[in-house]
Amino acid sequence: MRRALRVIVVFVMVSGTLALPGVAHATGDVGFGKSLLAGESTTGPTTLQFGPDGRLYVGEDGGTIKVYSIERIGYNQYQVTATDTITSIAAIGNHDDDGKPRPDIVGRLLTGLVVTGTAGRPVLYVSSSDPRIGGSRVGLGDTGLDTNSGTISRVRWDGTAWRTTAVVRGLPRSEEFHSTNGMALDPATNTLYVGQGSNTNMGAPADSFANLPEYALSAAILSIDLDAITAMGPGPYAIPTLNDPTRSGPNDKNDPFGGNDGLNQARIVAGGPVQVYAPGYRNPYDLVFTTNDKLYGTDNGSNAGSGGLAIGDGSPDCTNAPNEGGISAEDSLHLIDEGDYGGHANPTRGNAANTFGGHSPIQTSDPVQCTWITPGPARGSIATFPDSTDGIAEYTASNFSGALAGELLLTSFNNSIYRVRLDAAGDAVTEVSTLFSSVDQRPLDISAQGDADPFPGTIWVADHTAGTIVVFEPNDYDGPPGPCTGLDDANDDDNDGFTNADEIDNGTDPCSAADVPADADNDRISNLNDPDDDNDGLLDTSDPFANDASNGIGRTLPVQISWDAVLADPGGIDGTGFTGLMTNGTSDYSSLYDPAEMTVGSATGTLTVDAVPDGTADGSANDQSYAFQLGLDATSPTHPPFAVTTRIVAPFGGSAPVPGQSMGIAVGTGGQDDYVALSTAAGDGSGAIEFRREVGGIVTNRRSAPVDMPGPDAVALWLRVDPVAHTVQPRYAVASAGVTGPTKNLGKAIAVPASWFSSGALAIGIISTSHGSGVPFPATWDYFRAKAVAQP
Q: What is the mean pLDDT of the segment spanning 486-497?
């Protein structure tokens, strides 16, 4: 497949000014090998760190901690020799949001881990929270999860057993994935810094986050004075909460559990051991203290359609009134100094007039926090990234003659590890490049070994989706590396199976076996240079299922695709779960979408095209993009009727649509001339549900029903397909204010060609169109399913 090389654009800061984009890829003398840690048994790893005892500590999303003893058994080969399992965090009791215990809710969402102490007495600080997930995602809404469930625990090895005690209770937890995340310990002051996630997307309560407002301690970097807590005496520090009018007395027996949608949230206590160190961080996933005593952290940007700006944004009178919509914004890297505002609005801290049961959890307003700021220099970002960028570590080893020493390493959901070079003072980024590509599936956290550690210079990555620990060993681990010319030729200098020329075309490093290009069919010819990415004999320019060698034959019902980060990777193209795009017969499928303009598997568990460009399959135009699909074998003469379904979240991002804009689902042959589509659409500009049938490039049926846009929280769409009767029935339902209305037919069932069900697999998928509007817009899908249904 021949396509133009897509360079990852990363803005960098030099002396406080916006500089040219950084180099797209790491090259030169820095090279690594790559392997998987053999014998590990991790499930859903979220965080990892080596301890002072030389063992690797790995936290899992269910609350379990695996402690691995590891040995190097050969060149670029590592294996686990013993495993110790800590289950005490997973055993922490859970509560509902009214504070009542829920012993039936088992496990904890563990997202942060710091290992300190000594080799003989390791000490762990662990962040965890309620394991449930809510929000509008798959219609869950408000699950009743404890929004005060954030807890910091201390786990100590006393020489014979692990002893666990709670240190802090009552930290916020959103209705979505945002929680009490990564931590960094300043040993000089015994202060623990914590990345605390937000309760909203951009500042306003919204359906995707179950309409929860920001809390006094949400969306911030928090500081915890561990010495002050110790001085208070035995037992955990339960952060004082508001006097919830629905619960008895100022100190309810279940406090601090159960935030009760803010009525019982934790208060900011003057002089208390838990403080807001730096406000305005949407979802700071990880933090690191570097050797130059500076604190850096990553922060996840907003998602289109997951919630809008606070009402009153930009004024000191911002409120916690709900507001749908929202845009996709890049992730950020920050140098975090005390008091710096990170740019994510929090009306609860911004305006003390925003009360809960008549009370404010803050002492004074900070109007700065009423304003949402775009990631970049104005927000204090020292670098920005187009994909979810989460884990962070400093490389301190002297490998490669110190070429990497002092640089930051960041994990990205684009399956890469970034290398970030800082200036001498550590105040600005001078260069960002990709150190490793094609890591595994979705790398989430990272740890790097120093010169005095058991495996000097190695880099260890936890891939949450794949459930693996990936090990990168420097080429000079056992001494100077072998020769590498790096010439643009047919040689394979790093012995990774790809020629130097192929790697150079892709921007990967021909001298680093750990850095390889994307290769869908694993034939060691990159997707860029392979005209048939699945080796099925069909060129990528005309293959409707270009990443499926069977072209859908053999795929049967049910089909269930979800983009939830805690679930298994749906696979397919860039993690969408789909194996092709609606083809026009001439364009390579890779040119029909741009992964940098999409958000797949965000905190809200959705798939979003951030800015749908102009283009459509309607009529003879055939310049449709972002129409993802997969093949379903419906050729059996007795195949049961089935429904293709989805849920469009926050249609048009809460903005008024422009005629020609639409988003929905499609069924057809896989080409842009033969399909039916059901969409949430602009109509004449006031909103509609639209259906069209196109056969042989001619639109033979159009239907529509008015639905006011913007307005709905979501729209559910169904195409009921009968492969025997050769008919399709469009249906829809509109959800507003948390209530889903009745399901309605959009006209009667309509006939489609019998050939659609007899010559190969049927194409089913999603489609978004901006036909002649010239105005890009966000399109968000909650899920995609196909399942058998009863006869009418």
A: 94
Contact between 757 and 623 under an 8 Å Cβ cutoff? The reply is no
The whole-angstrom separation of Cα 562 and Cα 559 is 10
Other CB atoms within a 10 A radius of the CB of residue 554 amount to: 11
DSSP state for residue 291 in the 8-state scheme? T
β-pairing, 191-196 vs 220-225, is antiparallel
The 3-state DSSP composition of the chain as helix, strand, coil percent (nearest 5) reads: 5, 35, 55
Dist. CA 607–CA 599, nearest whole Å: 6
Pairing of strands 162-171, 237-238: parallel
Distance CA 616, CA 623 (A): 5
| Amino acid occupying residue 321 | A
pLDDT tens digit sequence for 231-261: 999 999 999 999 999 998 777 889 999 999 9
Q: CA 676, CA 702: separation in Å to the nearest integer?
A: 10
User: What does the block give as tokens for 308?
Assistant: 């809008």
34 token code pair: 């790559």
Q: Which residue has the tokens 């990553």?
A: 298
Neighbours of 637 (CB within 10 A): 8
Separation CA 551–CA 763 (nearest Å): 10
CA distances, 771 to each of 169, 486, 616, 767, 777 (Å): 52, 46, 6, 12, 12
Peptide bond into 558 cis (omega under 30): yes
Q: Taking a C-beta distance cutoff of 8 angstroms, is the pair 409, 382 a contact?
A: no
Q: Supply the DSSP symbol for 653.
A: G
Q: 298 pairs with which residues across the strands?
A: 333
From first CA to last CA, the distance across the chain in angstroms is 45
Alpha carbon distances (Å) from 402 to 397, 399, 406: 7, 5, 9
Per the CB < 8 A criterion, the answer to whether 105 and 58 are in contact is no
d(CA 633, CA 213): 46
**Is residue 361 helix, strand or coil?**
coil
Question: Which pLDDT value is given to residue 283?
Answer: 97
Structure tokens at 102: 């829920």
Q: Give the whole-angstrom CA distance, residue 344 versus residue 370.
A: 9
315 CB neighbour count, 10 Å cutoff: 14
For residue range 288-327, list pLDDT tens digits in order: 999 999 999 999 999 887 899 999 999 999 999 999 888 8
Burial 441-457 (b: 16+ CB within 10 A, else e): bbbbbbbbbbeebebeb
Euclidean distance between CA atoms 235 and 434, whole angstroms: 45
* Phi, psi dihedral angles at 37 (to 5 degrees): -65, 115
Q: Are 410 and 417 in contact (CB under 8 A)?
A: yes
Closest CA to 1 of 377, 409, 520: 520
73 by Cβ neighbours in 10 Å (0-12 / 13-18 / 19+) ranks as exposed
Burial class of 711 by CB neighbour count within 10 A (0 to 12, 13 to 18, 19+): middle
DSSP state of 184: E
Selected residue with higher pLDDT from 212 and 738? 212
> For the chain, what is the radius of gyration of the CA atoms?
26
User: Among residues 571, 581, 594, 595, which one has the least CA distance to residue 545?
Assistant: 581
Tell me which residue has tokens 């590592």: 78
Cβ pair 32, 403 in contact under 8 A: no
pLDDT at 304: 82
Type of residue at 627: A
**Residue in 141, 385, 376, 369 with CA at minimum distance from that of residue 276:** 369
How many whole angstroms separate alpha carbon 146 and alpha carbon 150? 9
Check the CA dihedral 131-647-141-346 and report its sign: positive
pTM of the model: 0.89
The one-letter amino acid code at 240 reads P
Short-list 181, 105, 172, CA closest to 143: 105
Q: Residues in the chain, how many? A: 792
Phi (first) and psi of residue 227, to 5 degrees: -65, -40
Tokens of 596: 């940098």
